[in-house]
Design goal:
With 555 residues, the chain is α/β, with parallel strands linked by helices. Helices cover 37% and strands 21% of the residues. It is built from 15 helices and 19 strands. The strands form 5 sheets. It has a 5-stranded mixed sheet with strand order 2-1-5-3-4, with helices on both faces. The chain has a 5-stranded parallel sheet with strand order 14-17-13-18-19. A hairpin with a 2-residue loop joins strand 11 and strand 12.
């Protein structure tokens, strides 16, 4: 038996390769069978970069740029190449920091501090250098070094955010990537070389610029730039507030918790958020025609607690708010549409009895008495339990549901009576200056904790259904967010340090042989950056209580 020959199972078929063959070499044999570039592989379910080599018989699956993990690797690698090009174009002596701030459209908003103006002329030169790096196909080399060595390295480079981040890492070693002498740390895997990074565009925007990526559905095409100005304004405002606190990265926050009073930061953040809710209530109260407050946002944004807190602020202005969950207008289960897999599609607008919803809301606006429905999620039936509403002069409806920003839901209701609010957890906190925290990660961790507490749902189940939830958001929520009259950011700067204590045991419960293990492992590594804090100082009316429990609202 030739021990140098190994059997590799790919898509159910067996192939023979020499021991020590790189996964990149194997991927070359299959590239013509894939519609998009292969950038990573899974080996017996474990994610691997393409420079690794065969060591034993295995089952191998390819990850392309059309997969979420592959798309993330592409974007991460593109950032490294962009930074290399910026420092080369401007000169290291002219750049203090390049900071990746947050998502804008299908790209990332970045800023440069130093003797550099990121105008169109400068960005054109950077793009030219990036294209040159692509043509040269320079390897992205990984090396594993001691954490103390990494701290000294980034101190030397003036990357204080990374130096501070690693000070709180419990692991003894970290991975550093090197692109032609430019070294940096990244949270996650990378593509093999710059030749893979062909699709990008740099766009001047506001005080900085946007690095645009292709859409994951069409990973070879850069689409139209859609900046979403209302969303950008909220994100920028939150970032400004974080800077005033001196907390823009995980390292900053860990420093604060170690050296100062965590309770003071929690109460400061809660006071800031309450002030924003009060501003929204004042704007609504100033316009007596606004009788329908319509709230929408993606999963785990804290919509329910927000609607309660907004109602309290509205009451403080002399109004009488009445909560109306759109979910109570679900069609009976047997009338609910099904998706392509034959499962009930509760996310689509057609799952709502929009005709009844419009009939009841119009009747209320006319001052009529209306018996409101209640949806029984156990039986899948809409029921009537004697809950009657009638609007007086100061009454106002606070309506919550994923379709509330879509006028197709409230098609017959007068526009002058509607006040639309978009809510999402838009974190301003980043891991360091080059590694951002995606908003979706924060919401997923919130949902894992809440589902386990309120529904007995395992972290494995929540992770498994998350892609379906995200598809629903992409189809039914995000296209309408700019139609909102106001936007509310429900992210709390301290929340991941609290959620860490709840989420880690749940994530550790996912076995290595489970399909959800890779995502659980990624989230555990992410949470390891944070110094955990207890929930003692979290107020009972905090949005975070919707997820960890112990709140004063019945949510």
């Amino acid at each position: 038996m030739d021990e140098t020959k190994l059997t590799v199972t790919i898509e159910g078929k067996e192939y023979t390769y020499e021991k020590g063959t790189s996964y990149r070499r194997i991927a070359e044999d299959f590239k013509n069978s894939k519609d998009h570039d292969i950038v990573l592989v899974t080996v017996d379910g474990r994610l691997r970069e393409l420079h690794h080599t065969l060591k034993k018989d295995c089952v191998l699956d390819f990850v392309t740029t059309a997969d979420k993990i592959g798309d993330n690797a592409y974007r991460r690698s593109m950032l490294l190449m962009m930074l290399k090009a910026i420092y080369h174009t401007a000169g290291h002596e002219n750049v203090e920091h390049v900071r990746v701030q947050f998502a804008v459209g299908n790209g990332l908003y970045c800023t440069i501090s130093g003797n550099v103006e990121p105008d169109a002329a400068f960005l054109k030169k950077v793009e030219e250098k990036m294209h040159e790096l692509v043509r040269c196909a320079i390897p992205l080399e990984k090396k594993n070094i001691q954490t103390d060595e990494a701290i000294a390295l980034f101190s030397q480079y003036g990357m204080k955010d990374k130096e501070k981040l690693f000070h709180y890492r419990r692991v003894s070693r970290v991975n550093i990537y090197n692109l032609d002498g430019f070294e940096d740390y990244y949270y996650g895997y990378m593509v093999p070389d710059t030749g893979y990074l062909r699709y990008f565009r740099l766009q001047p925007f506001d005080e900085g610029f946007v690095l645009e990526f292709p859409d994951r559905k069409q990973p070879e095409i850069i689409g139209e730039f859609r900046p979403q100005p209302k969303l950008f304004a909220v994100q920028k405002e939150t970032l400004h507030w974080s800077r005033l606190l001196g907390i823009t990265t995980v390292g900053d926050m860990n420093d604060y918790f170690v050296k100062k009073d965590a309770g003071e930061l929690i109460l400061t953040q809660e006071a800031y958020q309450e002030g924003k809710i009060a501003e929204i209530a004042a704007e609504i109260a100033a316009n007596p025609k606004k009788k329908l407050v319509m709230i929408a946002g993606p999963s785990s944004s804290g919509k329910t607690t927000f609607s309660h807190r907004l109602s309290i602020q509205l009451a403080a202005h002399g109004l009488k708010p009445h909560p109306i969950p759109v979910d109570d207008y679900f069609k009976n289960r047997e009338e609910t549409p099904k998706d392509e897999n034959g499962n009930y599609n509760f996310e689509c607008l057609e799952a709502i009895d929009t005709e009844l919803f419009n009939h009841d809301m119009n009747a209320l606006l006319r001052g009529e008495r209306v018996e409101m429905p209640c949806f029984n999620f156990v039986t899948g039936k809409r029921e009537y339990r004697g809950k009657v509403r009638q609007l007086g002069e100061n009454d106002i409806l606070v309506i919550e549901g994923i379709h509330c920003l879509n006028d197709a839901l409230s098609y017959s209701l007068p526009k002058e009576n509607k006040f639309k609010i978009y809510i999402s957890a838009l974190t301003s906190l980043n891991i360091d200056e080059h590694n951002r925290i995606p908003t979706t990660d924060g919401r997923l961790i919130r949902r894992i904790v809440r589902d386990a507490r309120t529904r007995g749902t395992s972290a494995k189940q929540t992770i498994a259904m998350w892609p379906s939830v995200r598809r629903g958001e992409e189809n039914y929520i995000f296209p309408y967010q700019e139609d909102a009259d106001v936007m509310f950011n429900s992210a709390l700067i301290y929340e991941l340090a609290v959620l860490k204590m709840y989420a880690e045991p749940l994530l550790f419960g996912i076995g290595k042989d489970e399909p959800e293990y890779q995502e659980a492992k990624r989230l555990l590594k992410f949470l390891d950056y944070f110094v955990g804090i207890p929930n003692d100082s979290v107020p009972v009316n905090s949005l975070l209580r919707e997820f960890i429990g112990g709140g004063c609202f019945n949510v």
